[in-house]
Amino acid sequence: MDAEREALQVMAYPEVQSFCQKHGLMFEVVDLRLGIRDTEATEHMTTELCLEELDRCQKTSIGPAFIALLGDQYGPCPVPPLIEEKEWEALRAQLTTRPRDLELVVRCFRRDENSIPPTYILQSGTSEAHGPEEATLTSVLRCGAEEAWSQGLLSQRQWLRYHWSVTEWEIEQGLLSSAHGDQGATVFLREIQDLNKHILDDCALKMVDRLADGCLDTDAQNLLSSLKGRIADAQPGVLKVYHLPWSRDLVNPKNKAHARYLKELTEQFVARTNHQVLEHLRELDSARQELGWLYQEIHHHLWQGTEATRTFCGRQELLAQLGQQLRQNDSCSHSPLVLFGPPGIGKTALMCKLAAQMPGLLGHKTVTVLRLLGMSQMSLEARSLLKDICFQLCLAYGLPLPPAQVLEVHTRVVHFFHVLLHTISCRNFESLVLLLDSVDDLDCVRHSQRVPWLPLKCPPRVHLVISVCSGQRGILDTLQQTLRDPNTYWEVKPLSGDQGKEMIQLLLAVGRRTLSPHQRDILWASLSGCGHPGRLRLAFEEARNWASFTMPAPLATTAEEATHQFCIRLEQAHGQVLVAHVLGYIVSSRYGLSEAELKDVLSLDDEVLQAVYQDWTPPSKELLRFPPLRWVRLRRDLGSCLVRRPGDGCTLLAIAHRQLAEVICVRYLAGSERAKRHGVLADFFSGAWSQGTKKLITLPLVGKPLNLDRKVAPQPLWFSDTIANLRKLKELPFHLLHAGRLEELKQEVLGNMSWISCRGVSGGIEDLLDDFDMCAPHVNSPEVGLVQEALQLCRPAVELRGMERSVLYTELLARLHFFATSHPALVGQLCQQAQSWFRACTHPVLVPLAGFLQPPGGPLLVTLTGCHKGITAMAWNLEEKLLIVGTQDGIVTVWDTQEWQVVHILTGHTAEVRCVKIFANGTRALSTSKDHTLRLWNLLSGQEEFATSDGGSTSSTNPHTWGLHVDEVNTVVYSTSSSKVTAWNLETAQLVFCILGDASDPWVCTAMLPSQAQLLTVSEHGMVSLWSLDTGKLQDKHPLSSVKEETPTCVASLQRQGRMLAGFSSGSISLVSSEGERLLEKLPEAVRFLMVSEDESLLAAGFGRSVRIFLADSQGFHKFMATDLQHEDVVESAVWGPENNVIITGSRDALIQSSSFKVWDLSYIQKPRPSTPFLDRTGLTAVSHNGSYVYFPKSGDKTKVTIWNVVEGEEQETLDTSSEVRCLEIAEQAKLLFTGLVSGIVLVFPLDSRQDVLCIPPPEVWKAINCMSLSKSEDHLAIAYDNIVLVLDISPGDPCPVIEGPTYTFYTQLPETIASVAILADYRVVYGMTNGDLFLYECVNSKVFPLEAHRGRVTCVEVSHKEELAVSGSEDTLLCLWDLQACKWKLEMSYTSSYCTGVQCACFSKDDKYVFAGLKDRSVIVWSTLDGTLLAVQFVHAMVNRIIATSNGFMAPTSHGYLIRERFQYPSARTSQQDPLKNFKKAVWLIKTRQKEELAAAAEASQDSGSGTMQGSESKSNKRSQVCLLV
């Protein structure tokens, strides 16, 4: 059936493989007859191997498990390789009357006393002598078995061993006697018509069974007929019969009948197999559990634990001691238990045995969680490990599962895990035991100095037991630095010599083996009292293969030598090349290889194929595959050295023992061999030789290159729209990197938008960044660095919106567009790929046309969120690279600044943390809080050392100022709270002294002056006091001369200069010295903090939402950076990093579940960067010349207007208005800039000339302008004051347009003030009030129409371009669409989420079909004016202050100083309904329509009485009447 087998390989398997991949399945064909000679197919071990593989397929396959191709050959019956003693005696008894036959059988078999029970083994020489002797032996045994069976001495199954071929055994197990019946089985039967007429005439026909002399084997033909009949009778539904006419060249490819038959066969195969897969998937879907992945993980580790304890012996004393320790710890807080010992000492078996004893130790309700780390893919990484443990604990204790937003960020998962343990403890019911074996196998542990997720203190009834390796420096040393309790560590020592022998005996008994006395002596001599379980197991693996007649050589005396000896034995049995490459591929893989992947990889390995086919040529001239039988034999001999890991929907093979992996690296991966293995793996996972691409090879017996198809699995990024190729995503970057193919890595992975999107969507932002972290240091490419930084900057949007494609494409394009021209090779290519994706997008989307998000290469490196609720204090230690963060909710979080992972979460404070300090070389920290406690923390252990209170009142509502200063030399800490300074001894927590200030003039800031041994305090009224650090006595007191109406807010001491910096409520920063005081800078808002770098070369000043950086000079300090560092909420603190090149700032911003801190790179000014953003702090930005110029009040001087050239990224000009600017409007067609001032004047500047400035006076003196509006045709201008509106006309003129009027002026006659205004071409005015009222006023008729009110301040009113509609937005998150003809609302949209705080601005699209709205949660939304449908939501990281419609989208300046330019793309044919809020867990878009409301009201009115209707109508109106006074 070679032709059928090849046809399936060429035409059917690829199609089925693609089908399976689309359903998330891996397709593997196990054909042990493929690619081998007939002699190998009939070897005596082949039957057993075939049946083992068939059993594996039936247990693991989803759908098809067994396919039989049955033709006109029955196949030979191989001699059984092993005969049990009773069966042998029965055969021997029948052969005693035939001495020659008996002598032949005795010569071919030899008794093995080491087997239990004893067996007779076919000698290897016999298995190689295929010929007459073997045929005779087969005949003799068959006759003997026939006679013994007839006498009842053999069972039928034993009798069949001497009669059935391998084919019949396979069909029997796979179909006829299968417990699954015909499920997953198919038999394709080929019947050749009139074959019997020709087989006797031509002895050369090989398509039937023949004897050695060429005659027809009638017995085999009879057995074949019987087999076909059994199949037809038992399972007719699985039988597919094909009738072919007789032809001498039947198997010739040119035979049309045969070609049709092969085509039909392959089509039937594909249809049948796909149907079986679908049927099974439907069954699985109906019974599928939502958390099936979790149950599979739990079951896998439990099964592994059961296997590990099957041969457990010894350790009873250690188990008893551990049990006693666990019982003692159950009722109190305690440290985790750490089991340690060298590799292979038996820690895993001990952990599994301990897990099994838990119910007896702590009660039958104890919840035990066992994870053998490294035994599954999920247990290789801390993120996935904690995720599945949290899920299991929540299910076990009936607690809510972790929400999706927690799972997206590792720091949140860590926090959730710690809180979960305390929650379980507080239940005071079932105890919990977590056993984590081989913690050093975690990826994050191998490459880190810390174990940040590990709880260093377990609460009562919660136990954590971990095992780690000792010896070389690793995690054990790290743990010993953090867990100081000696009761924590338990050494796992070797077994005693007697226990070692006991273990060997137990292993032999489980394997049903024994040893002869001589062999036992050799074994004990080589072990000589060895108690190392790993070494004992290696010795057993050797000894189990000894037959009683074997004369073994002495075994190795060390574990390493024994491992090398094991490899040598494999090489002798399977060939050095095959063993070296197979083991090399498994060790070189990132997470392991599936068997299907390994066979594909070997099929691409020319060295392996040349070794396999050195003595014969492959059967096919079109394709070349590695023979699976070779792998199955090797896998069988590897035995327990391989571990199976479930992962990514398949089972992955990995090396089970660390020492074996190390030996493999030494033997097979030295020098260039490692790169070769990675190169072939990279070829496979890249799909370079799949889908018909042929690969050249020169085989030994051919002598010329052959271009053959290797038929390996294709490797697309996506198997279907929802199923990603996870194996490729995880393995390919790793192999390209280690193969040294860096350019390919850049182009196909790091610089490929499709790859980045697929990796991010399927694995999350952290997995994507892990790949960049792994590769970027080796690539040495500035462009890759830009992409990596851009991805870091994407974190907030991804954490808010979820990782979906449109978010990732938008984020990267809007950040990298700045560099598309300067870096075309990689960044430009990425931008083009993103634009191509947007063009093909099938749902409404906003497409960036230029860069508008903070770009990489700028000062902002990354925004990090964690377990924070408003960051209020920070400190950074450079020695230990730790960042400590205090928060509003009293939590103190410790971060590792190398990995940016949470190390400790310190709890104890009950109110907002105000100050934190790190000292003692980064090993200890202090924190003070509004709860008036001072707490000392050990940063190595994460434990509190002491807590003390200063006695202050926690209920006081008066504003307090806190300070914290540490004197390490004298071991004293000084804590300041309002008008009180307390000094405490750091070691004893004893009070040293207390200084009480004047309660009527409380201190607002303090500073320590170590060089003068003084403590400096500054009071609210500007009184500077100097106190002795030793005694606490007042030494000097004088007022700040510069303080008049200003209040000091903060100070910072300049120790080296003997001077002080002071910040004030008005924004002033003064330099104070003995000579006097000098103003350094005037900030726009009150100074919240001043932070000086250690070398006093840099100063950070926090004010409002910003931090300004200053550089020291001879005069003091001057501004260092062109732009300030911006947050989205009040900035509370900042800390300097190493070498002053990094600063971290923290704010109270709580947009994304928790607050964020930002890491800024101060060295960015030396890097090439995009154009500088404009600095607008007012939100009063105007745009002209299609976005080329931006206008805004100058920072620090609002009486001037800055004209900013967006293209050049620089200030073009400044306009002086002589009064503070309140609003700006641009008449683009008339080329005019209108500036509304606090004085009530409107200054009009021509955009192309500064000569003729027009002035529009106010209607009353000193009436400040609130807002202005231009009509769409720019022929009218509305100027709104508190309660007055002026309407002026604009007409063309030369050289400038003429402004006439006011044409109309009207008063609102309301106490509330006007907040927003819009004017129409027919002199109608729409205006909204601060209380939410909204009105339409007709100037011509002096009529006012009250519109239904908003529930909050009206923030924007915009009119459509055709002036038929208007939209209004308010602080209550309500958007209303108004019909201006009917003066009624048409649609009412409410956008509510846990983040949204109102609408900022809005505008209509040019065709009035859509409304673009900027929200105060820093997002832009698009909705339809037809029905209010929300079409798109985009997070832009900054407040959008104005939106201006363009021909295909909009422009919008942001608070970060960038101009958004986007195209709104609405596909003409939407193929899918995309929900813009699908990843917002608490976001709702509600739509009310006038038509539905009126229909509902009419239905209600028809049921009510007339009086009831009148009353309802009366109560419905919520508007006060209004009289407008026309002037």
What can be said about the biggest beta sheet?
Answer: 5 strands, parallel
Stretches with pLDDT under 50, minimum 5 residues: 1505-1527
Total E-strand runs: 74
The strands making up the biggest β-sheet line up spatially as 8-9-10-7-11
Helix percentage range? 25-40%
Hey, roughly how much beta strand do the residues contain? 25-35%
The secondary-structure class comes to alpha+beta
Terminal-residue CA separation: 103 Å
Description:
The protein is an alpha+beta fold and 1527 residues long. It is built from 40 helices and 74 strands. The strands form 19 sheets. It has a 5-stranded parallel β-sheet, sandwiched between helices. Strands 38, 39, 40, 41 and 42 form a 5-stranded antiparallel β-sheet that branches. It has a 5-stranded antiparallel β-sheet with strand order 54-55-56-57-74, with no helix packed on it. Helix 4 (85-95) crosses helix 7 (132-150) and helix 35 packs across helix 37. The chain starts with a helix and ends with a strand.
Features:
five-stranded antiparallel sheet; 40 helices; 1527 residues; globular; alpha+beta
Question: Nutshell version of this structure?
Answer:
The protein is 32% helix and 28% strand.
